[in-house]
């Protein structure tokens, strides 16, 4: 009879944690690498529509300055060298391409209102936009959706001309990690690029399941106490960072090509 397998000690199951860089230059390079990779991933997942869609990350050293994808460039081919650095007033400080000033103004306002928000994601997913057309919040109908329970908001208005007032968006988001902009779609924030992007993907998928369940019948919601407990377990940025790593592995092979 073969020997029984021996359990591997827990301390040998090392799991990578979010890196911490003391040197701002190294942290900047890390954030740009994750930002460029995240944009390529969002493009591959179909969360890009023409020139719409932006992800910003706060510079670790220069106050009120943020890295962002350039206007009119496809997500698929972006590398760290392609990113722009702009200040909160939309002046490009580094990079040779144009900035989408209107979209960037919303991101800058959110960053200013939320010092904890290292990254802001505003991309284009079909299910998030469909839910936004209904003017509804994400319902706690799945374990994954419970991560957003009482931790996201609805901006229940459509801006004139389709151009949102940046300060109103920031106020509508408040302390939460996600915002549904009525008739527009989703915006998410996080303490890292990884977390912010994961929250966008998770919210988009939760919206998809919610819409499918409603089309099939009457979804049964998780009760308040269980939804809160689930959010406390799975709704933090560390949980988001961990959940994002398998997706990051699909793009990291070219992420460092600067």
From TrEMBL:
Q: Which Pfam families match?
A: Aldolase_II
SMART domains xref list: Aldolase_II (SM01007)
Q: Which residues form the Class II aldolase/adducin N-terminal domain?
A: 33-211
Superkingdom, according to UniProt?
A: Bacteria
Q: Which InterPro entries match?
A: Aldolase-II_Adducin_sf, Aldolase_II/adducin_N, Aldolase_II/adducin_N_sf
The record's similarity note reads:
Belongs to the aldolase class II family.
- Protein's name in the database: Class II aldolase/adducin family protein
